[in-house]
Every structure is written in structure tokens, then in C-alpha cells.
Amino acid sequence: xxxxxxxxxxxxxDNHHQISKKPISFSNRGMTLEEEINRSNQYYLVNNIAVxxxxxxxxxxxxxxxxxxxxxxxxxxxxxxxxxxxYNGVYQGHYLDFDAKExxxxxAFPLQNFHKHQIEHMRQCLNQQGICFxxxxxxxxxxxxxxxxxxxxxxxxCQFDGGRKSIPRTEIETMGIKVDYxxxxxxxxxxxxxxxxx
Length: 198
Known about the structure:
Number of strands: 12
Strand content: 25-35%
Largest sheet: 6 strands, mixed
Order of helices and strands: EEHEEEEEEHEEHEHEH
Strand order of the largest sheet: 3-6-7-9-10-12
Low-confidence stretches: 11-29
Number of helices: 5
Mean pLDDT: 84
Helix content: 25-40%
Radius of gyration: 22 Å
CATH class: Alpha Beta
Shape: globular
Structural class: alpha+beta
CATH architecture: 3-Layer(aba) Sandwich
């Protein structure tokens, strides 16, 4: 039996063609970690679970071009100040503050992916009893971990006392909480926050 698509090409339906049954993977859809977290945050918001947003990066606009009356094009701008962490919000009455980082490194997470002002911001949030953490994604195998800010800060401080310039993946797997992809939310990172709260 032959079935034709609207474009006229034939689609054969016989017993010789079998569909391979590969396990469904919700990872590696071409999205960045930021896009994945933004989608997850939208799910949390729509379902009244949490209110978490990406912080806008403060910029100072210097020059604008108006090619049309209805459109403006920014020609020159600069960052007003160094940004802190990527995300903040509220979950079950708790203040959340976190950053998201990806690495192509297979065996360790380089601490240079963070900046000093981000670490200091996390310290300040912890001092105010906020829930602060980092979401770390190893791109090579699409594995995601949630690491408490206190563990990240400890590793950061140790590097200046002759310690390593990175956190071995084995330590992240031990200290952090692995978060597996799912359909909704795509990255259920609040499961790790529940663990912190308990």
C-alpha cells in the first residue's frame, strides 16, 4: 500500500519498515541552559508554584538611531554595573537567588565561570537567610546539578589558599543534587530546593 503526501512523494507503509524504539530524551533540544530555566520558571509561574524571573542586565544607552518613526535602534550602550546572579524570586515564602552556568569540561567545573562580585552577592544573600545556589550543567552529557551556594563559596575561597581552580565533577555529584530533565517543568530545580528546606 502506498500513501502520498500532499507534495506528491510516496510514503511506503509495509512491514519491512520498522520504527526504532529509542528511549525518549528531553535533553539536548538545542536550547541553552538559560532558555531551559526560563521555560521551567514559566511553568512554575503559570501553575502558582513559584515566582522566579531572570534579572535584567542594567545598561546605559548612549546612542540611538531612528531609521523609522516607529522603530529605534540602539547603536551604543554599556553595562552600568556588574551584574549579580541570574535569577531571583520567591518560593513558599522563601527568597531564592541563583546563577546558572554551563561547562563543556567533562571532569570539573572551572571556578573562573563565576566572578568575585557574584560570589560576594551570594554571601550577602546567605547572611540574610536567603536560599542561594548554582545550577551547573555539564554540556557533554547534559547532566544538571544544583549546588548550594555555601559549597560553591567554600571552593571559591579555597582556591586563594592554594586550592584547586575548579571543582571536580565527582565532588559536585557528591555535594550537589542531580536534577533530571522531564516534560514539565523541563528542569525541576525546585525539587532540590525542597531538599534544602527539609
